[in-house]
Amino acid sequence: AEEFPEVVRPIMHYFGRAPSHQFAERFGPLIPPDRIHGAWENGRVVGSGGVFPFETGVPGGLIRAAGVTLVGVLPTHRRRGIFGDLMRTQLKDVRERGEPMAYLWASEDTLYGRFGYGIASFSGGIDLPRERIAYAEQLEPAGEVRLVEPDEAVEPFSEIQRAAAAQHPGMFVRTKEWWTVRRLADPEWVRAAEGGSEQVRALLELDGRPAAYALYRLNFSADRGIPAGFTNVIEAVGVSPEATRGIWRYLLDIDWMARVKANLLPQDHELFLLLREPRMLRFELREGLWVRLVDVEAALAARSYKPGEPVVIEVRDDLFADNSGRYRVGPGGAERTDAAAELSLPIQSLSSVYLGGFTFGELARAGRV
After folding, report:
1. Exposure pattern of 312-338 as b/e (b: 16+ CB <10 Å)?
2. Confidence at residue 27, expressed as pLDDT on a 0 to 100 scale
């Protein structure tokens, strides 16, 4: 643990600053020291990569997963195979710990495919003028929204987010430590990164029970007395469609703001059909999660499937030979088989479809199945 600031120095180099005690305090409690791998030369760390141990939503429930983070190699040591050695060592460690899946947000989309990761979702951002916030259908306000302090937020926000993760594949479950140390922490350097103003915490209760929450920042400005600022929605999460509609209605109706902005939204977000003018969202698409199945048999057994005829798929995995083989997948689950394969694909493609973000048909049209 005492080596943590030094071990994350390679990735911090690319953020333009040295590791600080603030950084260690924010991340150190969330990453077990034995989940960080470092490449050392003459007593100095030249490359590293870490893992957040998570529970993560998949179709049908929650599984254990490795959230890959803080991966970097100093520019003085590039092109020596250090990054590849780190990634392979990390994946083997994930597998030995019984986590069927690793996943991450990629800083560059060319880095991880060669280690079996496949793009598994898209996400996007919005920039909505407040004069275009009308819903397509008139919805009566439901429940009550109140602003809460960080300590008061931990319990209900945690309850809401865990319930939402079980319904939304790819969403990880935050621990109480994650809420306290990271998500609800609001030091000056975090404010600067997210817009400069104080974090606001809103809780929506339906029938007296926590149903949705929002974290946001108000960035006020005015041009000759006319509001020109924006509401920056960090995240808004509900346990039901009604709750999600309600918390977004609250966010869109905040006065004295000219625009509402948000990032990391799924491409099938409710706002597309809630709003009367969805094009005014100005939704900007980018890649989202990258997934790597490290134990295919366990991963396939952990999720649910839609009704239909079983399909036999043949998987190729260059890193984990025992993942390679044929699996019959159907409504009753997944099992190994010697039957003839109907689909053949590399581990990257199976990882892409695992959470449901893409279909086999979409990958086939791109030549990936």
Report:
1. bbebbbebbeebebbbbbeeeebeebe
2. 81
Q: For residues 198 and 220, what is the distance between their CA atoms, to the nearest angstrom?
A: 11
Tokens representing residue 274 in the block: 């809630």
Provide the 3-class DSSP secondary structure of residue 342: coil
Task: State both tokens at 194.
Answer: 């997210």
- Number of Cβ within 10 Å of residue 189's Cβ equals 12
Rg over alpha carbons for the chain, rounded to the nearest Å, is 22
Query: Residue 97 is encoded by which pair of tokens?
Result: 């710990």
What order of strands is seen across the sheet that includes strand 343-346? 333-336, 325-330, 311-316, 343-346
The whole-angstrom distance between residue 21's C-alpha and the CA centroid of its chain comes to 25
CB 129 within 8 A of CB 290: no
pLDDT at 24: 76
Pair 77, 104: CB distance under 8 Å: no
Torsion, Cα 190 192 196 198, to 10 degrees, reads 10
Phi-psi region of 246 (alpha: psi -120 to 50; beta: other; left: phi over 0): alpha
Residue 279 scores a pLDDT above 80:
yes
State how far the Cα of 188 lies from the Cα of 278, in Å rounded to an integer: 34
Rounded Cα distance between 277 and 82, Å, is 49
Do β-strands 61-73 and 101-105 pair in parallel, antiparallel, or remain unpaired? parallel
Position 194 pLDDT exceeds 80: no
Q: What is the pLDDT of residue 6?
A: 86
Give pLDDT, residue 305: 95
- How far CA 146 is from CA of 149, 202, 210, 230, 354, in Å, comes to 10, 6, 11, 20, 38
Query: Would you give the DSSP letter of residue 91?
Result: H
Q: Are 273 and 300 in contact (CB under 8 A)?
A: no
pLDDT at 195: 73
DSSP-derived 3-state class of residue 183: helix
- Of 310, 367, 317, 368, whose CA–CA distance to 342 is shortest? 310
